[in-house]
Amino acid sequence: MANQIKYLGNVKMPFDSMIKLTKKSGTRVDATFDTERSSYHKNRNKTELAFSKKIQKLYGPNKSVCYFYRYTNPRLSEIIPTSFWKKYKMDKNEARVQILHHPPGTVSIPHIDRYDSMMRDSGISKNAQKHKKVRRLWITMTDPKLGHALFVGSDVAYNLKKGTILTFNKNTPHSGCNVGYEDRYVLTVTGFNGQKTR
């Protein structure tokens, strides 16, 4: 792994149980074409907005490859061990835990995250100081599989052991893909850097 992707180690969690939770009642499913997500056009400067529009235009004609799933369930935060929240200095009560599911042949388009929906759902969307402290951890949920990759700038994370934790600069364009033949699951934990669990 090169400079744009920061490797933070490995964590053990009941990933299989978490994945099964995606099929349970109480789980919110966000299944959309990535090219049609309005969040990629919000809170952007002129250059970033031009980039988002360019990507949307490039991927729009083949939008079926950009259809994948995002799952949230309050139980996910409870499943994550207390030691994790303490180690990474995040307050689980202020964090969003989400599972990304890419079936074979799907991608997330190149984009930059601004975490607007997370900030809005937390009721602190207008808090600029909090926004500066947003941090996302990206965790593999399955063993290494053919075609499962994360791209950050010119770097790629591939062939990662289950439970690998990564992070990267939110201002760097990134994308993910499953160009293999088995489902790809990734856990993202988005919270505020330096916040300790109550």
User: What is the C-alpha radius of gyration, as a whole number of Å?
Assistant: 16 Å
Report the strand count: 11
End-to-end separation: 34 Å
Strand fraction equals 25-35%
Question: Helical stretch count?
Answer: 6
**Class of secondary structure makeup:** alpha+beta
Overall spatial form: globular
Mean of pLDDT: 90
> How does the major sheet shape up?
7 strands, antiparallel
H/E series, N to C?
A: EHEHEHHEEHHEEEEEE
Into which percent range does the helicity of residues fall?
A: 10-25%
Looking across the biggest beta sheet, what order are the strands in? 1-9-6-11-4-3-2
Description of the structure:
The chain is of the alpha+beta class. The protein contains 6 helices and 11 strands. The strands form 2 sheets. It has a 7-stranded antiparallel β-sheet. The chain has a 4-stranded antiparallel β-sheet with strand order 5-10-7-8. The longest helix is centred in the N-terminal third of the chain and has 14 residues, at about 45-60. The mean pLDDT is about 90.
In short, what is this structure?
The chain has 6 helices and 11 strands.
Sequence-ordered SSE layout with sheet pairings:
Blueprint: E1 5-10, H1 15-21, E2 28-33, H2 46-59, E3 67-72, H3 74-79, H4 82-87, E4 96-102, E5 106-111, H5 116-121, H6 128-132, E6 134-140, E7 148-152, E8 155-158, E9 164-168, E10 174-178, E11 184-192
